[in-house]
Amino acid sequence: MALRKLGKDPESKSGGSPTIYLDEEKDTYLVQGWKVMEADRLGQLDLPGHETVVEIPRRMVQFFLEVQDGKGSDV
C-alpha cells in the first residue's frame, strides 16, 4: 500500500501535524490530527466503537483533491 502525502498544516509550529494522505489503492483519505477527548463533543457524534475521530483545522481542506480539481500538493 503506497500512501501519498497530500499536505501538512502550513501553520503547524512543529511541522509534523496535522497531515492528510491519500491511499490510492483503496481510494480513501487518512487524516492525522488531534485526538478529540472532550466527552461533550464526542457525545454529539454517532460514533461506532470501531471508529475514531480526529480534528484538523479548516485550512487543511485545501489538501483534499476534490477541492483542488484532482491535484494534490504532495507537500
Descriptive account of the structure:
The chain has 75 residues and is mainly β. It has one domain. The chain contains one helix and five strands; from the N terminus they run ββββαβ. The strands form two sheets. It has a three-stranded antiparallel β-sheet with strand order 1-2-3, with no helix packed on it. It has a two-stranded antiparallel sheet with strand order 4-5.
Task: Provide a quick synopsis of the model.
This protein is 5% helix and 27% strand.
Oligomer: single chain
* Strand order within the widest beta sheet: 1-2-3
- Overall SS class: mainly beta
Low-confidence stretches are none
How many runs of DSSP E, i.e. beta strands?
5
Total number of distinct structural domains: 1
Biggest beta sheet attributes: 3 strands, antiparallel
pLDDT averaged residue by residue: 88
Structural shape: globular
Could you give the distance between the termini? 19 Å
Topology pattern, helix = H, strand = E: EEEEHE
Determine the fraction of residues in helical runs and give it as a percent range.
Answer: under 10%
State which percent range the strand residues make up.
25-35%
Radius of gyration: 14 Å
Number of helices: 1
Highlighted features:
single chain, 75 residues, mainly beta, 3-stranded antiparallel beta sheet, two-stranded antiparallel sheet, 5% helix, 27% strand
Question: How do the strands and helices of this protein lay out in sequence?
Answer:
Layout: E1 3-8, E2 19-23, E3 28-32, E4 34-35, H1 39-42, E5 54-55
Antiparallel strand pairs: 1-2, 2-3, 4-5
